[in-house]
Amino acid sequence: xxxxxxxxxxxxxxxxxxxxxxxxxxxxxxxxxxxxxxxxxxxxxxxxxxxxxxxxxxxxxxxxxxxxxxxxxxxxxxxxxxxxxxxxxxxxxxxxxxxxxxxxxxxxxxxxxxxxxxxxxxxxxxxxxxxxxxxxxxxxxxxxxxxxxxxxxxxxxxxxxxxxxxxxxxxxxxxxxxxxxxxxxxxxxxxxxxxxxxxxxxxxxxxxxxxxxxxxxxxxxxxxxxxxxxxxxxxxxxxxxxxxxxxxxxxxxxxxxxxxxxxxxxxxxxxxxxxxxxxxxxxxxxxxxxxxxxxxxxxxxxxxxxxxxxxxxxxxxxxxxxxxxxxxxxxxxxxxxxxxxxxxxxxxxxxxxxxxxxxxxxx
Length: 363
Prior knowledge:
Elements: H1 30-36, H2 43-49, H3 59-89, H4 95-98, E1 104-111, H5 121-126, E2 134-135, H6 153-171, H7 174-177, H8 183-186, H9 194-202, H10 212-215, E3 224-243, E4 246-261, E5 273-285, H11 287-292, E6 296-305, E7 348-349
Parallel strand pairs: 1-6, 1-7
Antiparallel strand pairs: 2-3, 3-4, 4-5, 5-6
Region (Disordered): 1-23, 322-363
Transmembrane segments: 69-88
Keywords: Membrane, Transmembrane, Transmembrane helix
């Protein structure tokens, strides 16, 4: 009779029949072998049930693979969304996309027909076309605000407020008028125009692009001073939508200044005189400008007098004072037959009715 651990056929050849029990622990019985068939189906089972050759992995592995696939899809979607967002909002997008436009400006001196009238500032204003103008910022009024097709009421109001602020700072600030500073104006200028602005202030030129007097009103402080800080103003602002991403504001204002000779200057007869500046300025705003409270100054057309036509108006305005006249201050003649391009400056004549007419004997 075989031992309890021997196979039915008896012990294999060469293995002691009853003997060495230390090997009995490594002999696999039939129940162990059946239990070891965990991974592979039979060929018939695979044909009958279309079952894979090996069993599927456990549910924890399937879950882990699904999560990895989901994370990958989310990362791809996030990368795509970021690329689209940066393409729209990238602050370093190309100049062509912003399409910035340099300021183009024209300054036209207006020469008086005779001597410049003089009197006390109050008498001059009272007997001039500026008698009913408002004083200072009160003369820069906003129109009724309405949203446009692509801009809300709030955005239109922001554009008008910025344009008004620019006009006030560039035409009414005493420090700007006398050449003491340009910073109040500069901080409003769109960053794409700052290089042009700075060159216009540092090296002004009468080339239509770099006249300081196209950006702001500035007098020759070595010759003239303000006789009255209360500048008279009248004008209007208008806003239009020029594209799905642009607003334009046009300001058309007349400023009337009371001037006198600067300290130590013998020019004129010592009385005050009026100086008139008509400024038509066109501003442009995109959504970045509205957000950053900045302005693209696109075009400026300035008429100013009384002045001599022969003076350089690019860097500063040089008014004629009370008792002075334009004399022979006329631009050089223009020869239309000459091959070179004409460099003659524009000049106009100031209408008599544009001058004050104070009563005789006014101080």
